[in-house]
Amino acid sequence: MREPRIARVLKFVLFALAVAAVLGFVVMRLWNWVMPPIFGLHAIGYWQALALLVLTRILFGGFRRGFGGFGPGMHWRRRMMERWAQMTPEEREKFRAGMGAAMGKRCGPFASPTSESKT
pTM here? Predict the structure, then answer.
């Protein structure tokens, strides 16, 4: 029998808090181990480390789900591979021709030269 939705949400929230607590501690320890001796910066506390972690996620990583190739960033590729597998050879050729024409319009000088541009 499936767990109630509230129980799953509660488990997720608890897991997220545990991960945030561990990552905050790791960031604090790494900062205090590396940055003060090398650059002469001050040591930071746990809450500052957690804020630094959030700030770096906002500036550099965003808050996308998933890690590496397992998140929604790869969802488009899986869907495209499924569609490609269902295409007939004629449909694939038509798709390739359409993409080649589109790339020629969009990529400017990087596109392969056509007979029109040679004259």
Answer: 0.50
